[in-house]
Amino acid sequence: MEPCRSLALLAASLALVSALVALSTDFWFMAIGPSSSAHSGLWPKRGGESVADFIHVTQTFSILAALCGLGSVGLLVLSCIPSLSAPGRGPLVSSITAFVAAVFMVVAMAVYTGHRWSQPRHPQIQSCFSWSFYLGWVSALLWFSAGSLSLVAHFRAPPSGYEEL
């Protein structure tokens, strides 16, 4: 297996894990006040309160990114097994799905960042983004890397022909 495909598989796997951890944890935003601190994520725990629209958009696009990322990882794994993949097309389709996952995650992160950034500040409360939020951005960068590496693997692959059968 060529190094670009291996690195693409590693980057896509790390991106998928980062996105899933970011989605499932509650440390997207922190607020630190004079006597206490609080943190929030994408899945509010209060039962009767309505969830803001920007949270729904972030949830939806993050889940779509994770699903596309899972497809990209699956296609890369299948492209490593010659008998299960279409000759020469696995890395190309994996590259496309990795780029789509990256775009979905960038949209999700941009919506969340834009809304949180525009909220009014309170003078006694220090608010900041937390580690789950940063994992979301890392997953987008890793999916862009995986898509690029997979594209390079596709163009470096020998052309399929009758001599490979």
Automatic annotation (TrEMBL):
Pfam families: PMP22_Claudin. GO terms for cellular component: cytolytic granule membrane; plasma membrane. The chain crosses the membrane at residues 61-81, 93-114, 134-155. Residues 1-19 form the signal peptide. It comes from the Eukaryota. It is found in: Cell membrane; Cytolytic granule membrane. It is a multi-pass membrane protein. Gene3D superfamilies: 1.20.140.150. One of its GO terms (biological process) is defense response to protozoan. Keywords: Cell membrane, Cytolysis, Inflammatory response, Lysosome, Membrane, Signal, Transmembrane, Transmembrane helix. The keyword Signal applies. Regulates cytotoxic granule exocytosis in effector lymphocytes, thus acting as a critical mediator of inflammation in a broad range of infectious and non-infectious diseases. Essential for cytotoxic degranulation of natural killer (NK) cells and CD8(+) T-cells and for the activation of CD4(+) T-cells following infection. Plays a critical role in CD8(+) T-cell and NK cell-mediated cytolysis of target cells and contributes to the cytolytic activity via the perforin/granzyme pathway by enhancing exocytosis of LAMP1-carrying lytic granules. Belongs to the PMP-22/EMP/MP20 family. This is Protein NKG7. It comes from Myotis davidii (David's myotis).
